[in-house]
Amino acid sequence: MNLELRNLLEIWIWKFGFMIIGIDASRAFLGNRTGIEEYSYQVIKNLRDSLREERVVLYLRSNQIVDFDLPKNWKVNVIKWPRFWTQLGLSLEMLIHPVDALLIPAHTVPIIHPKNTLVVVHGLEYEFCSEAYSWLEKFYMRLTIRKSCKWANKIISVSENTKRDLMSLYNVPSKKVTVVYEGYEKNHQSPVTSHKSLALREKKSGQLPVTSDKFFLFIGRIETRKNIVNVIMAFELFKERYKNDYKLVFAGRPGYGFEKIKCQITNSKFKDDIIELGYISEEEKWNLLKNADAFIFATLYEGFGIPILEAQSVGCPVVASNNSSIPEVTNSSALLVDPNSPDEIAEKMKKLVLDQDFRDDIIKKGFKNVERFSWEKCAQQIANELKK
User: In this predicted structure, what is the pLDDT of residue 388?
Assistant: First the structure.
C-alpha cells in the first residue's frame, strides 16, 4: 500500500462514525496573548473536557505550537498559507477536508465553510468609539463581522449588550444569537509575601525596585478606547483635592492613540506618580492586582471586560464605566462611573480608599460576582451549541 493511500485510509478511519468539529486556533497560540487571543486559548483549552466523543481538528498557522496536551480524539492541522490564511488557506481546507461543524472563536468566517458554522462576536466597540480606531480598522471590522454574521448559522455573543448591538446595528435575528459569558483565568501564582510591597519595572533601566504602598491600577492596551486620558485627569484631581502619596500604574502595550496619552503623562504635574510598565507577565499581573488599592476600568465601550473579573477574584475593588456590557458583568459589585467625567471617577477613587466599610462591602460583592463566570462553563455552552 503506497503512502498516499495509507494516509487517506487513516483519515477515513479517524473520521468514520464520528462528528468532526474544526476549530480555527490561529489566534490561540500567539505569543503575549491579549483580549480575544486569550479568549480563544482558554475556550479551546477547556473544550477538551466537553468534546470527548467527537473528532476535533485544530487549524494552526506555520510555526504555531499547542502548549497543552490534547485528547486522542483531537489532532492538529497546520495550514501553511503565507497570505490571506483564513479566506484562502482555511477555505481550501474546508473544501478538501470538510467538517461537520466549524468554530471561529476569535476571527472571521472563511468563504468556504460548513453549514454548521459558529462564530464568536466579542463586541462592536468600533461602532460606538469611532475616534478610537483608524478608518482602515473600522472598515475591516465592519466588513468581516457583518460577513461572519451573515455566513455563520449560529453566533455566540459574549454579553446581552453585544447581542442587542448586533440586532440593532446589523439586523441579526435574535434566534441566531446565543449569549455565552466569558470566563477568567484564576490566579495560580504563589502568594506574595507582603500585601503592600510592590516591585515595579522601570522601562529605561530594566528591573528597578520601586516601593509604593498605595496605587491605582489599570491593565490593558494603552489606547484611546480605554479612556486613559480621562483616567489620568481623574488621578490629577484626586491628588490635588486630597493631598496624598498614591500612584497610578499602567500595564499594557501601546495601542491606537498612544501618542496623545504619552503627551498627557509627560505634561502632568504628577508625572512622577504615573508609572508605565508596558507588557507584563502573568506573575506580575497577579502581584499587581493583589496589591492595588483599586482597579480603574473606565473604558469608553466594552464587549465584556475580563480584567474586571480578574481584579475582583483577588479582592481588588473596581471602578468601572456605567456603559455597554459593564453593568451586566459587574452586577452591582463595582463602583460605576460616567467615563467622560474625570470628576466622578476621582470621587469614586476617593470613596474606595477612604471609606473602609464601603470598600470591604465592594470587595465582598466582587468575590460573589466572579462565581458566575468560568471558562469551564463557557466552553461547555459552546460545545452544546456545536453539537446541535
Answer: 84
Look at the chain and count its residues.
Answer: 388
What the block records as the C-alpha cell of 378 is 463557557
Rounded to 5 degrees, φ, ψ at 110 are: -70, 155
**Are the beta carbons of 43 and 383 closer than 8 angstroms?**
no
Backbone angles phi, psi at 382, to 5 degrees: -65, -40
For residue 116, the SS3 value is strand
Q: Quick one: which of 145, 64, 67 has its CA closest to 104?
A: 145
How far is the C-alpha of 197 from the C-alpha of 288, rounded, in Å? 10
> Grid coordinates 456545536 are at which residue?
386
Q: Where do the domains of the chain lie, and which CATH numbers do they carry?
A: 17-183+374-387 (3.40.50.2000), 203-372 (3.40.50.2000)
Nearest to 146 by CA among 172, 178, 176: 172
Q: How many CB atoms lie within 10 A of CB 188?
A: 8
Distance in angstroms (rounded) separating the CA atoms of residues 173 and 176? 5
Per-position DSSP letters for 323-382, written without gaps between them: STTHHHHHTTSSEEE-TT-HHHHHHHHHHHHH-HHHHHHHHHHHHHHGGG--HHHHHHHH
> pTM of the prediction?
0.87
Tell me the three cell numbers of residue 332. 452591582
> Do the beta carbons of residue 28 and residue 40 sit within 8 Å?
yes
Q: Read off the pLDDT band of 124 (50, 70, 90).
A: very high
Confidence at 303, pLDDT banded by 50, 70, 90 = very high
